[in-house]
Amino acid sequence: MTETNIFATSAADAVADPGVGIAGDVADPYAGGGEPKNRARVGSIRPNAMLFTSGIGATVDLPQIAVMPQGIDSWDKAYARLGGEPPLVLVPRLLEAVRRQLGNQVGELRQPPWLPDELGGDTTPIGIPTRIFPQWLRCTGCDLLAPVAANAFEFENTRKHRPDLARFIHRGCKGRPNKQGQSTQKARARVAVPARYLIACTNGHLDEFPYVDWVHGADKHRQECVAQPKMRMLEWRSNLGPQVSIQCVNCKARRNVAELTRAGGEDSLPNCRGRHPHLPSYASADNPCTGEVRLMLLGAANQWFPATVSVLVLPSRKEPQPADIVTEVLGLPPAQLADLQSPDDMKAWRKFGLKAMTGKFDGVSDEDLWTAIQIARGDIPPVAPAPASPVGYDPNYLLAPEWESLTHPTEFLAEDPRNGFKVHPVPVASSLGPILGEVVAVDRIRKANAFIGFTRIDALDRVGDDATRIAPIALSGKPTWVPATEDRGEGVFLRFDEQRVEAWEAGVLTSDVWAAHCAAHERNLARRQSRTAVVLDADERMPPPRYWALHTLSHLLIREMAMSSGYGSASLSERLYAWRASEGRAPAAGILITTTSPDSEGTLGGLVDLARTERLEGVMLDGLHRAQRCSSDPICAHRVPKGQEDFLHGAACHFCAFLSETSCERANRFLDRRFVLGLHGGSLDVKALLAGVTVSAG
């Protein structure tokens, strides 16, 4: 599956706003809405876009309209039309991580519903349900501003194979009126586009801008007008930038939106109604929303921040342990587990059940599987206590099992077709031997991703990763399943010598450069942390020096690999294993660089080929050679935060180390070239981690 369809509800469904405290009806985009000439499909997106850029609760900008993917209650209608069981992502470790965030009622990880449109056929394609949002539209011909419910605009989407032409039109538009208020142009149809202003709050709510109430002064002395006044949105350019005014045609009331961008301007906005347009629902009257209300532009970067969980699908152990079997059983859909009431039920299920589920237990005896089923249901106690869940902030909880499987090849299968995993070791080049302990070519790897919700205004890490700030994706607030996707691909894994890393790190921890970075991080957290978040511990969230060094090296390698692998740098991504020893967890120092695709065929092999000894040596040495000099040197090479500066990088910039946001796991933060290699006078009091690797002079 390379794309999934997205469908808009009919206009009648889209504007059926519920009363305060009452959940709205879940619209069915396949019902037709009384307009059989129009088609429901309005576009298509890649499956991963549903998780990271255009997911539930986000506004998706299509060529001429904007829509919002609906909550999972609407998705159930799409699955019902598909028939049969929804396609699942069977990754127990991911399901466990989702349950820690949303609760144990989550039983399934479902792939997006998708049924392509057959060329020449008369079938109705199936995809993600959406609603038209925002509901207020502006005519591009006469500046008329009205909601869809006013029926001033007509929806048009009649071309079966051209959903990009879906649009709202204003028929009979005579253009903008002159100074006398008369329109003299010939009447014709004009396109209506989404009005750009919205209001949002820190609790994840989003609502239409109150154009009518605001322009009539509802925040101070309200000006009386007719019940449903005719509105216009006027826009012009000035020396101060674009100016936008909202005008009432009936009473001539007029206000400039610039009022809201001045100090204290947002105080004129109404209190939040607690609206979740993706569900749809409003806050109840006895429990109103008290979040801070902000003016929001359609498509603004802080309108929607996804909350996702991603894990690598690990290979099976060569000798499965009882706990592993229990984990796999817990990953089964609850309905399947409930049907296994006896050993005979289990045997029948193993014989006639779906191979995607039963195949997980090939090689496991009936006796061991039945014991695991009883443990999973709580009928008997576990053989060994379950590992402790993370307490407090622990960014490495999901990474630790991956590190174990990649660094202990004798315990895990080197090739596991069922889990889409295949690796083989590669000799380390002699020139890299002083620091590089192991190189593993990852021929095949599978990554699973789950979407658990989103935040608005503040990203999740800016509110202390507080799960209560995540907006719900189901009307009940307790979803029984969440959207998920699978990616397949390839990669290169590098493990660094722990003794050398530890010795180098000890020296960095006492350096002035590290002290400057720690002080800048503390200032950054204090200034950019959301005002509505709990107080965060800066020391707890500061990555150790080894993370800075490996993160920087990862960026240098990705930039160099993009020149030789056949993939652009934006298609390569990093996964860092860099933490110091702590209670119950051994230290880690490794880099996994991968490229993945949601296509079932995976990727083409250009990246894993770079793991070969001579090729990896060339890539690393060339990358280090290029990084010795930056076109912004000496400014870049000598950069260290000081005074009141709070940037989270040192000798790193767009010319030498930064990557696109699709590649970097930390938004180009925590980077410093001097931690990796010598920068002549820019190294200051820091010794480079790769000082023992000989690089030709830059």
Explain how this protein is built.
The protein is α+β, with helices and mostly antiparallel strands and 698 residues long. 21% of the residues lie in helices and 21% in strands. It has 16 helices and 24 strands. Strands 5, 18, 19, 20, 21, 22, 23 and 24 form an 8-stranded mixed beta sheet that branches. Strand 12 and strand 13 form a beta hairpin. Helix 6 (322-330) crosses helix 10 (366-377) and helix 15 (545-561) crosses helix 16 (613-627). The model is unreliable at 10-24 (pLDDT under 50).
What is the structure about, briefly put?
The chain is of the alpha+beta class. The chain has helices at residues 11-14, 49-52, 72-82, 92-102, 211-215, 322-330, 334-339, 343-352, 355-358, 366-377, 399-407, 498-508, 512-528, 538-541, 545-561, 613-627, and strands at 4-8, 41-45, 60-61, 66-69, 108-110, 127-132, 136-139, 144-147, 154-156, 167-173, 188-194, 197-201, 206-208, 231-236, 243-248, 254-256, 293-297, 305-312, 415-416, 421-426, 436-455, 481-496, 573-579, 588-597. Helix 6 (322-330) packs across helix 10 and helix 15 (545-561) packs across helix 16.
Rg from Cα = 28 Å
How far do the termini sit from each other?
A: 46 Å
Proportion of helical residues:
10-25%
Strand content: 15-25%
Count up the helices: 16
Low-confidence stretches: 10-24
Structural class: alpha+beta
